[in-house]
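wait is this the right file?? whatever heres the structure
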């Protein structure tokens, strides 16, 4: 496995990043079929790619904060998971992007 950015997070890999991107695209297409039928197929594909890529930035940003603070976990609320923030770090960047894409592209 090849490390994505070892200085920031040694355990994040290119393979994991690619898998996350594939699943983000699949999730967007499933969302289109189940509860967002107003999305065109290309909207779902773009949203999946954007969420997959930008979500990685959120995850890496949170890892960078932890590295800078010289801590391994942001809390011990969920042992072994890096803290509660690790469960939501990708959403910090991708949720606003998805909102603005839907607001200004899909419903424009």
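ok assuming it is, sequence goes like this
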């Amino acid at each position: 496995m090849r490390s994505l950015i070892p200085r920031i997070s040694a355990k994040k890999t290119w393979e994991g990043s690619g898998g996350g991107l594939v699943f983000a695209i699949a999730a967007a297409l499933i969302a289109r079929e189940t509860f967002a039928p107003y999305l065109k197929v290309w909207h779902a594909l773009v949203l999946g790619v954007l969420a997959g890529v930008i979500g990685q930035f959120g995850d890496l940003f949170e890892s960078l904060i932890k590295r800078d603070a010289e801590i391994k976990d942001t809390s011990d609320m969920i042992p072994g998971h890096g803290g509660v923030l690790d469960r939501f770090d990708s959403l910090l960047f991708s949720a606003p992007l998805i909102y603005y894409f839907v607001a200004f592209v899909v419903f424009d």
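The radius of gyration is 15 Å. so i think its the right one actually
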